[in-house]
Specification:
Strand content: 5-15%
CATH class: Alpha Beta
Helix content: 55-70%
Structural class: alpha/beta
Number of strands: 4
CATH architecture: 3-Layer(aba) Sandwich
Length: 294
């Protein structure tokens, strides 16, 4: 390889290094903000889920459409991925996890997908899945008014008995270095789903039976609070997924920057060796020419 070609490749890799470094910095800023929003939002979601979980002892006494299992085998599955790439295996992990679970559900049920995010839409379209609805452009941090469109759609279809079950797949934020694909059943509401959603599972909470005095009725409370709870569960899941996405993108760009830096070092070494060989060759040619002239 000629010196000019090596130099051109060095410049190209350095440009990539600068780009990935800038993306790493931007992702780090977004990661910190999204993590802060997700963590600040958790206590409300957890407390709401905890209250509903305690009410579960009373829910058995009523016939609410949101908690009663219905006959039928139509299932709506929400799968949340990102709109953009450059985030390592973030999208692959959740999409492969969801597809595996969907294949199991399809053995016994009729499944329809509701993809959220351009990557999810593209993935399931290529796979040939049935998808009448989709959403994208929820932003880097998620807005409750945008989430309401999703929750209103699924609650409306559930009340109209278009689906008998609703599942949600998203990426749960554990730490900057670890995010985990997760599955919860949104409807009909069940105790296990609430336990799964709760970040801190306290044994005394799960075992303690509390009888609430509710007016005018438990059924009315459930019919009013569950749609709002579903909306907030989706909202919190989007916040968790956003924090996961920005963390994954920051780590991916950091790894890319380190690889580019290592590649530049290797190319510089190659360039110096090639340059030394060229100088040695030129010196030999000059010496040979001098001997001929002498």
């Amino acid at each position: 390889m000629e010196l000019k070609e090596i130099k051109r490749e060095i410049d190209s890799v350095r440009n990539i290094w600068k780009l990935t470094g800038a993306l790493e910095t931007l992702s780090a800023l977004k990661m910190k903000k999204s993590q802060k929003i997700a963590l600040l939002s958790r206590p409300f979601a957890e407390k709401t889920a905890e209250i509903l979980e305690k009410l579960e002892f009373n829910l058995n006494e009523i016939q609410s459409v949101f908690v009663k299992k219905r006959e039928g085998n139509k299932v709506l599955i929400l799968v949340l991925a990102s709109d953009r790439g450059f985030c390592g295996s973030f999208n692959q992990n959740i999409l492969r996890f969801a597809e595996k679970e969907i294949q199991e559900l399809k053995k016994e049920k009729e499944v329809e997908i509701l993809p959220i995010g351009k990557k999810a839409i593209t993935f399931f379209k290529k796979k040939g899945y049935n998808s009448r609805f989709n959403f994208f452009g929820l932003g880097d941090y998620g807005e409750l008014e945008d989430v309401k469109k999703v929750s209103d759609l699924l609650v409306k279809n559930y009340l109209e008995d278009n689906f008998q079950e609703v599942y949600f797949f998203y990426t749960d934020f554990i730490s900057t270095f670890y995010q985990k694909p997760k599955k919860i059943r949104l409807l009909p509401l069940e105790r296990e789903s609430l336990k799964e959603f709760l970040k801190e599972k306290k044994s005394e909470t799960l075992e303690e039976k509390i009888n609430f005095l509710i007016e005018p009725s438990i059924a009315l409370l459930v019919d009013e609070i569950v749609p709002q709870m579903i909306e907030y569960l989706i909202y919190q899941a989007i916040l968790e997924a956003n924090a996961s996405e920005h963390s994954a993108r920051m780590m991916a760009m950091r790894n890319a920057s380190e690889n580019a830096k290592e590649k530049v070092g290797e190319l510089n070494l190659h360039y110096n060796k090639a340059r030394q060989e060229q100088i040695t060759k030129e010196v030999c040619e000059v010496s040979s020419a001098k001997e001929v002239l002498d």
